[in-house]
Amino acid sequence: MVVFFDIDGTIVDDDTQIIPESAVRAVERLRENGHLAVVNTGRPYSHIDPRVRQMAFGGWICGCGMEIRLYDGWLVRRAPDTQVCAKIRDAVRACGMRVLYEGQDGDLFTDGAFSRHEALDLEAERMRRKGFRVRELEPQPRFLKLVTFDAPNCRREEFIRTVSPWFTCIDRGNTMLELVMNGFSKAGGMVQLLTRLGLPREQTLAVGDSTNDLPMFEFAAHSAAMGNGMRELKEKAEFVTAPVLEDGIEKALKHFELI
To answer: Which pLDDT band holds residue 235 (cuts at 50, 70, 90)?
Structure first.
């Protein structure tokens, strides 16, 4: 079985940033039992919490499928060119959005007043504490993807239309949008990884908590939503497990008799 795990709100508790020992133990036991554990996250590979990298994962689908890694080798690694990045930056500014850009080299980029938002400040501080750099966007911008939040009087729908030739906007709730290059998704990453492994989708389980996990749930043969997850995802799940800090990962894997 190949088990695909989201990170934020699934492996790592959003509020406390704690990774339960039960989750670390469960993923290790999954590997010992001959299954493949794969991270499937919206974060770029270079932005993954060092504690998660130390866990027993054998595959990595990152940036919602824009980066795919199996063991120590890259299968896919894509990023928009600087011309597209500049057009996205200009659309953010013109439409008055609040933004945090995610680089492919582990850096995050802010853009002056266009990044002033409570949720973005919190994420930037969390990443700084984990050792990542947060710096101002360069005149010739280069990034992998981005997240935005609405600001007062922003033009959200115009922004979505403007960026649509290059990026897909995923509504994460609470005015948050996650932007991923067109043609990429968590499900698309799963297809490519399974093709490389020569395994059918019938041998897959997806575990997540948010709306950006919906494509993963729709593709996987089996699915488990975290107890702390969003209602929209729980409605699509085969099984709803406990929250992160209540051993949700371990209970989900036991439910499916994988550990």
So the answer is: very high
